[in-house]
């Protein structure tokens, strides 16, 4: 994925490059002495509110996106950080990939509801057998009735 141009998330959502805000700083980690001079840490932020990209989505997807991203927003912006690579370009690509993955996850339809089913006869018998075994183990630990146990 290129570090420039629009961020293609799904067929429905493509975030314009102008909506992405980049910040660079020095990162800790691999890089030797170059880590002290190179701004390789990348912060990518995107504000969904008022975004033209979100405005192009159907209303149902807009609501789903805003509801699912609500807990991840920092002062109204979704922020992604990447600093695991030595090169700034690779960190930029990693940040774009992470942002796209978070947006894809937020746009995904909810899983189908689970239909309640009865437990099988075998699973009930295994559970009861396990309870009998455990009861026997605990019964072996008990002292006689004369020790104050009832």
Automatic annotation (TrEMBL):
Region (Disordered): 103-150
Pfam families reported for this sequence: RF-1
Start-end of Basic residues biased regions: 129-144
Annotated InterPro entries: Pep_chain_release_fac_I, Pep_chain_release_fac_I_sf
Boundaries of every Prokaryotic-type class I peptide chain release factors domain copy: 13-139
Homology family: Belongs to the prokaryotic/mitochondrial release factor family.
Name the record gives this protein: Ribosome-associated protein
